[in-house]
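Researcher: Structure for this, please.
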Amino acid sequence: MNVANLQLEGLLVVLSELANLLAEGDPTLRARLIEALSRAETTIAADGQRMAQLSPSQRESLLFPARYLACALEPGAQGAAFSQLAARVAEAKAPRGI
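Model: Predicted structure, token format:
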């Protein structure tokens, strides 16, 4: 496995823990964070020029961080292992035709 992939995996785990920590202090923040991640996913997917340059698996890779962090903010996900959340992302991703 590429070392950069491992670094990104670690970074996503750190960011998810930080996001959950922030959300604990403000009940409305969790929903706002999830909404912001959804907007980020939409923005990424709407970049037609960039999407046209990528294969379907590369497109999914580009969208994965926003989907992962949103999943990590769902109730009951705090403290879940990376592999568990990644599996949830794979199960939950909607076909978007991108």
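Researcher: Any notable elements?
Model: The two ends are 25 Å apart (CA to CA). The first helix runs from residue 3 to 24.
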